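Record 1 of the preview.
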Amino acid sequence: MHVVLTGATGLIGSAVLPQLVARGDRVTALVRSEEARRTVEAAGATGALIDFGDVSAIAEAFAQGDAVIHLAAAGDDAEGFDRRVADAAVQALGGTGKPYVHTGGVWVYGSGDDLTEEHLYSAPAITAWRLGVIASLEAADLVLTVLHPGIVYGDGGAGIPQVLAGQPRGDGGALTTLGSGRQHWTTVHVDDLAALYVAVVSDGSAHGGVLGVSGVNPTVGEMSAALAGGAGVVAGDPEAAKASLGDGFAEALLLDQQASGAKARSIGGWAPTRPTLLEELAR
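->
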């Protein structure tokens, strides 16, 4: 299979790319710099420089593949960037029967103690823009899967969990939790998540929304305790989290989310096998 991939040098993409290559797929990675092209080619892909501001150019690149996985993001224009990619996917893949895998995020479902793909969206402000993009994709004639990763960890400690390690220390070195610490996070190891992307694209079917989560949902307090070791933890103040991280990011990290990932486990025999986040943090 020829897979066109965006975001191949990011946290998730750099795990997806080698798994595709190991499976024997031909991968074209769309990149924004010569440095990125060298990186993806060293990993076994063909690097193609692309102007992500040009919908027609993206669509032309997408049309060359048998399947497309979109993982790239832009910090300064997240909504505009994602809309352009979505428009290109509709242009290139609409009516073709080729699978398109778009990346969302578990935060769009808001808080819940047993979240599934059937729940209504309740996105915090920082990710509310995703809903319009998803709606435009769902309205098109696409073989569509929108994969919503939980909190991604792995790859030497990269990712959002490191925010917890950066919280203030109290007397005796006790680590302050982000907010009260009672909120749960849905989690997934980056290598397990990459395997889910590969399972979805190789299956070739439209799966709609899929929660990319392991089913392990630790509390922030438990994760902070794993980081703190013998120093212990003290409960934080949600308002302090907003002051240090900004209202938007803090609102998302203060969501209380739990999910089993049952739908993901029904796709191609996928099952998470890597260490849990608590095990990684304790190490």
